[in-house]
Amino acid sequence: GEDWEINTGQAIPLGGIVVNRNLPEKIKNKINRVLKRSIEFAFENPKESCQFVKKHAQKLDDEVINKHISLYVNQFSVSLGEKGRMAINMLFGKAFESGIIKKMPEDIFIK
């Protein structure tokens, strides 16, 4: 992660949520809205979201769970914004340049 930030100057793209691009736009947008509301709810209700994570976590220690949440769940989880989209595009660009993927994907973000 540190190497990525130093060499690219971009945020670290740690993960993503994907939706089948063959779905109708209306459905993709609904999925996007529901996920956004769920993440916003988790931010506004940390005790409830922590209980949910505890129920499904491999490690049950509160400190480990809280560190995990604070590291992986942030404002990029709610909305990528321009900075997040740039980081993901750069990741795909590097994958293409190194031959990991055969072509650059198009229209990868829900509008």
Note down, in words, how this protein is organized:
This protein starts with a helix and ends in a 14-residue tail after the last helix. The chain has helices spanning 2-8, 25-44, 46-56, 62-72, 75-78, 81-97. The chain contains 6 helices and no strands. Helix 2 (25-44) crosses helix 3. It is mainly α. The protein has one domain: D-Maltodextrin-Binding Protein, domain 2 (3-Layer(aba) Sandwich). It is 63% helix and 0% strand.
**Overall 3D geometry?**
globular
The DSSP helix count reads: 6
**CATH structural architecture:** 3-Layer(aba) Sandwich
Helicity level? 55-70%
Described by strand count, sense and barrel closure, the largest sheet is:
none
The mean pLDDT is 88
CATH superfamily: Periplasmic binding protein-like II
Q: Span between N and C termini?
A: 28 Å
In sequence order, what are the helices and strands, one letter per element?
A: HHHHHH
How many individual β-strands?
0
Strand content: under 5%
The helix/strand class is: mainly alpha
CATH fold annotation: D-Maltodextrin-Binding Protein, domain 2
User: How many structural domains does the protein architecture include?
Assistant: 1
The CATH class assignment is Alpha Beta
Q: pLDDT under 50 segments (min length 5)?
A: none
What's the alpha carbon Rg, rounded to whole Å?
A: 16 Å
Concise summary:
Helix content is 63%, strand content 0%.
Topology, please?
Layout: H1 2-8, H2 25-44, H3 46-56, H4 62-72, H5 75-78, H6 81-97
Helix pairs in contact: 2-3
